[in-house]
Amino acid sequence: MKFFSQSFLYDDPWSIVSLAFFMRYPNPYASHVLSCDVVSRTVSPSGTLQTTRLILKSGSLPRWAPQGIVSRAESWVIEESEVDPNGRVMRCTTKNLDHVKALSVEERIVLSQQQDGRSLLSTEARFVSAFGWGLTKSIENHGLTRFKANIQRSRQGLSVILNLIRQSRTQPMTLGAPSSFLDSYSSNSDASAEGRNEQKGEGGSWGKLKSWIRPS
Question: Residue 195: how many CB atoms within 10 A of its CB?
Fold first, then answer.
């Protein structure tokens, strides 16, 4: 079993970061996310918003992985969240529903408002493999390494959505209306080479983001 823990402080208020969290797909850093659907959404008697979403993600196996270790390089992930608007706290748990024998990944996120008005996002993750055959430790280490690499891209993707929300607060940005921010962000983004290539092509996740914000 492997563990991961990290916290990140956003300058934006809790209400904006929690909104961006639920709007984070699609974004140019999440091309591996194939779909995201709301399964249920209810308001508890105490006034918290409880949401369950089903997310389909694509992935790749390391070269040393035995053939047939998983049936397909895609995984269904369930996301269960609870938003407390009074306490200014959001809690979210995600875990994969398939390939759990090869590797089970459970991620817990807590987003809370700080006294100075900023937002603290704390992430904890656990990686457990029951594959055996002398590969358990290698599989868990691979999952941890991939998670560490992807969490930075996740943060960058959330920042894209935060920038869009900030822009919408300073000037109207209705569906179908031109947005100079999208053009300026596309040309000035400091994303990786892969991210920049996706932004230039309409078929990538950046194209999906633009079509979502500004349909043709």
Answer: 21
- pTM, two decimals, is 0.77
Q: So what's the pLDDT on residue 25?
A: 95
Cis peptide before 26 (omega within 30 of 0): yes
Are 198 and 205 contacting, i.e. CB atoms less than 8 angstroms apart? Answer: yes
Rounded Cα–Cα distance for residues 65 and 63 (Å)? 6
Q: Residue 52 class from Cβ within 10 Å (0-12 exposed, 13-18 middle, 19+ buried)?
A: middle
Kindly report, residue by residue over 133-181, the tens digit of the pLDDT.
889 999 999 999 999 999 999 999 999 999 999 998 887 655 454 444 4
Nearest-angstrom CA–CA distance, 40 and 60: 30
Contact (Cβ atoms closer than 8 angstroms) between residue 195 and residue 187: no
160 with 29: CB under 8 angstroms? yes
